[in-house]
Amino acid sequence: MCGIVGYIGNKNSKDILIGGLSELEYRGYDSAGIAILTNGKIDTFKAIGKLVNLEEKVKDLEVDGLSVGIGHTRWATHGSPTELNAHPHLGEFSYVVHNGIIENYKELKESLISDGVKFLSQTDTEVIVHLYEKNFAKLDDELKAFEKTISQLDGAYAILLITKSDDKKIFFAKHGSPMIVGNSEDEIYFGSSDAALLGKASEVIYLEDGEYGYTSFGEIKLFNKDEEVALNKKPLVGDKISAQKSGFRFFMEKEIYEQSDVLSDAILGRVSDDKIIFDELESDFFDSVNHIKICACGTSYHSALSASYLLERDAKIPTTVEIASEFRYKEPLLSLDTLFIVISQSGETADTLEALKMAKRAGLKTLAICNVDNSSIVRGADFSIMTRAGIEKGVASTKAFATQVIVLWMLSLYLAQKRDSITKDKLQDEIKAIKHIPAATIVKDELHQQLKRLSKRYLHGHGFFFIGRDIFFPLALEGALKLKEISYLHAEGYPAGEMKHGPIALADSELFTVALIPKTLLYDKVKSNVEELCARDVTLLAISPEPFDLADDFIKTDSHTHPMGEFFEMMVVTQLLALEISIRVGNDVDMPRNLAKSVTVE
Questions:
Q1: Burial 139-162 (b: 16+ CB within 10 A, else e)
Q2: Is 457 buried (19+), middle (13-18) or exposed (0-12) by CB count in 10 A?
Q3: Is 331 helix (H, G, I), strand (E, B) or coil?
Q4: Which residues neighbour 594 within 8 Å (Cβ) at sequence distance 6 or greater?
Q5: Amino acid 115: pLDDT
Q6: What mean pLDDT is predicted for residues 542-569?
Q7: Looking at the structure, do residues 176 and 301 belong to the same domain, yes or no?
Q8: Are 48 and 30 in contact (CB under 8 A)?
Q9: DSSP SS3 for 75
Q10: Helix, strand or coil, per DSSP, at residue 45
Q11: For the chain, what is the domain count?
């Protein structure tokens, strides 16, 4: 999500910046901009939409001689996709681009406003440039002012800053978001991915968290904790597509591995030590709401089902879930005390959009959970919560599902706070569990290798059952969907307790059963259900923190104190299993047949 480029040298910096941004388009964006500093003068250009709109704006710009430039493609998190919200952001004499989320931007912004600073955008990023200029006014030293600025920031960031007070330098910092510095002879390049530097830089430095510094013509100075550190340069090799995939075989694989980072992004600024915060929502929005109806399709429907358990359990509010394509034609009864929630990764899902329009016509309050700001569904709903998953190129959704679920979990706790349906101690436990989720989704190499080996055993037979109970039933549905989408093998998700009510008739040695057996929730019940299947000689893959003697194959998960920790870890296992089986059968994992990323037709 979002892309950063930078350049110092004698070549045409306009072309280098635009070219670098074009190599980062795969990351997803809704606006773009560049700023070029030459002989104390800064030219800046911004445009919403595709990069071609920015190219049109800069077509007459001529850049000669030594120049300093920064560029950015933005995926909106704070503020809608507008030119004012697009990067670079400006102060009186400086410009900044930034990836990540500044968690304490509100406090910083309020302090700066009290000092008389006027803000132009709705973004968290703009505080960086104003804070820098405030610090420079006190310290009269660019590097010290920059050091002071980054020490005041909480959250994740990759930052490039240029300033008229020293028009031959780019200042940079990294914490939690990727940043690469490259050089070729006297030229210096920056990028948030290898793809922006391929064919330009011969050597690169992959910055570590906490590192910062500045570059000037032919020079890189790198610091950590106020001490200069040696440059660890590495040769830059590879092609542009592999660079976009960051060394992974498929975009889907890369996106599974990215889930820990995007879940951190989804949480940032929304979880404090003692409460859940949604600045996007008005405090009285949920007044008079006595029922929730959620409408979605496909993977988003599975996240909605997961949310129904959480909303009823934590917020104590009746919740129903509808498949959008069915909801449209069932002549539903809609009461005005119902909050209508729609979920869509793209924000353009046709059936979900039409369901939203029906709810609006009926006068219901509406809320969108979405990954794309300014999409049709976001524009149509009363309020929206962005999932911050970044672009997802694999057709089979992974990180979009993960971020939807964690946003809905936080929303259920937010409502529980407002309705006083949760104790302070229980809320503390939930917040602690949420903060642990990014770590729970880090892919362990030994797990992935085990699933690669196991996958060769699951290429025949007459189908798969994925089974689970409670919130693990929607996860079973999602696991089955992932497998059928990319492997073309038949797979179904079932509640474990329902097997004896019909589906167990299919049980034999050629039926593969993937059992989700969490220790923290209904363990003995699920274990008993699985034993019934084992008595019918199914081939069983058990996923659990507890060994299961009857299993043909066993994936051991970590011990967790909260069911959602097990949920997210098992989610990763089912995604990797689908990936490896699909690779074994020789399919194009990222572009499965007959499917599209955004379903915009009925």
A1: eeebbebbbbbbebbebbbbbbbb
A2: middle
A3: coil
A4: none
A5: 94
A6: 96
A7: no
A8: yes
A9: coil
A10: strand
A11: 3
CA end-to-end span of the chain, whole Å?
29
What domain range includes position 206? 3-244
The two tokens of residue 162 are: 């240029």
Instruction: List the CATH number of the domain containing 160.
Output: 3.60.20.10
Q: Which of left, alpha, beta for 522 (phi over 0: left; psi -120 to 50: alpha)?
A: left
CATH number of the domain where residue 516 is located: 3.40.50.10490
pLDDT number for residue 101: 84
Is the same domain home to 314 and 332? yes
* Each residue's pLDDT tens digit, 171-187: 999 998 889 999 888 89
**Domain stop point among 411, 438, 465:** 438
Q: Which two tokens stand for residue 347?
A: 């924000």
d(CA 244, CA 178): 13
Domain boundary among 220, 244, 268: 244
* Residue type present at position 378: V
| Alpha-carbon separation of residue 231 from 178, 194, 390 (angstroms) | 17, 17, 31
Instruction: Identify each DSSP E strand in 217-283 by its residue range.
Output: 219-224, 227-228, 234-235
3-state secondary structure of 190: strand
Distance CA 52, CA 55 (A): 5
**Token pair 């542009």: residue:** 240
**70 touches 6 (CB < 8 A):** yes
Sheet containing 227-228: give its strands across.
89-90, 94-102, 155-163, 166-175, 211-216, 219-224, 227-228
Asked, for residue 591, whether it belongs to a domain, the answer is no
Question: What sign for the dihedral angle of Cα 121, 264, 276, 401?
Answer: positive
44-96 tens-digit pLDDT: 999 998 889 999 998 888 887 889 999 999 877 777 788 899 999 999 999 99
24-44 pLDDT, tens digit each:
876 667 889 999 999 888 999
Is 211 within a domain? yes
SS3 48: strand
Residues 6+ apart with CB under 8 A from 290: 317, 318, 337, 338
Enumerate the active-site residues.
2, 597
Location of structure tokens 């980072």: 261
Nearest to 70 by CA among 45, 100, 92: 45
Highest mean pLDDT among 63-67, 147-151, 222-226: 147-151
**Does 351 map to a domain?**
yes
CA distance 470 to 121: 44
SS (H, E, C) 396-415: CCCHHHHHHHHHHHHHHHHH
Decide if 465 contacts 503 (C-beta within 8 A): yes
Q: Are residues 565 and 467 in the same domain?
A: yes
358, amino acid identity: M
CA dihedral over 9, 12, 14, 15, signed as positive or negative: negative
Cβ-contact 165, 97 below 8 angstroms: no
Helix (H) or strand (E) holding 146, with range, is helix 142-151
171-110-136-226 Cα dihedral, nearest 10 degrees:
-60
In a domain, 154, yes or no: yes
Say whether both 274 and 230 belong to one domain: no
User: Do the bridges between strand 338-344 and strand 291-296 make them parallel or antiparallel, or are there none, so unpaired?
Assistant: parallel
